[in-house]
Amino acid sequence: MDRSQNFNNNMKAKKFTFYLLIFLALLVIWKLSVIESGIDKLQILKESLELHKDKLQLTEQQVLLLQQLEAEKHHQNRPIIYCITPTYWRYVQRAELTRISQTLKLIQNIHWIVIEDAAKKSDIVRNVISESKLIATHLVAQTASFEKFKDKNPKAKRHRGVEQRNAALNWLRDNLVLGKDKGVVYFMDDDNTYNIKLFDEMAKIKKVGVWPVGLVGGLNAETPIVDRTTGKVTGYRSGWLPNRPFAIDMAGFAISLDLILSIKNANFSYEMAKGMQESEFLSFFTTKEELEPLADQCTKVYVWHTRTEKPKVSGIIPGLEV
Ligand code: UGA
Ligand code: MN
Question: Which partner for 302 in 36, 111, 179, 198 could form a disulfide, CB atoms 3.0-4.6 Å apart?
Answer without folding.
Answer: 198
